[in-house]
Amino acid sequence: AQSVTQLGxxxxxxxxxxxxxxxxxxxxxxxxxxxxxxxxxxxLQLLLKYTSAATLVKGIxxxxxxxxxxxxxxxxxxxxxHMSDAAEYFCAVSRNxxxxxxxxxxxxxxxxx
Amino acid sequence: xxxxxxxPRHLVMGMxxxxxxxxxxxxxxxxxxxxxxxxxxxxELMFVYNFKEQTENNSVPSRFSPECPNSSHLFxxxxxxxxxxxxxxxxxSSQDPSVYSYEQYxxxxxxxxxx
Lengths: 113, 115
What we know:
heterodimer, A: mainly beta, 6-stranded mixed β-sheet, B: mainly beta, 7-stranded mixed β-sheet, 4-stranded antiparallel β-sheet
């Protein structure tokens, strides 16, 4: 069965600092991996996705993620945090049947001025 | 309207009420989903519809009754809910659920409070 683990339910960084949100997956087949962001009182918005074309994936708002098969990881990074990045971030893996998504528990990102 | 819309955005209902949540997607997708998002818990997939046919019911209590009259509209009919059903209900759509690389597009959600 596929699963996703997000390390750290809450991450706090200073404005301008590096953002690193961790995601590890478990999958018996090559996975498709996604990062979504949820701003307060809104739905989920796709940041980026990995579909095996390239291991380094660039997304919206300056975020990127690197797929590392040997580490079963898909960590999300951004070189310089902005106040507007404060939100909850979800990593998800696509199941091998039906295209349904398995979500991690989410990481809340706070950005301090 | 663009993307996925949901109405109402907020709903307060008593345990004996009957209400419905509505979702509409303007993306030409074939699949639609209902999720429940409770505080401190992962998103829970409730139902999946593909070309109007229900393809998954994730052991959801019968007090939640979905309806999908066409590929663009999805409803969630609610009756005799419990306080623990209070949550954010999210609707999503995707192009084809059999293609695992297709992402899902989410609506803004309905914040439901059961009193």
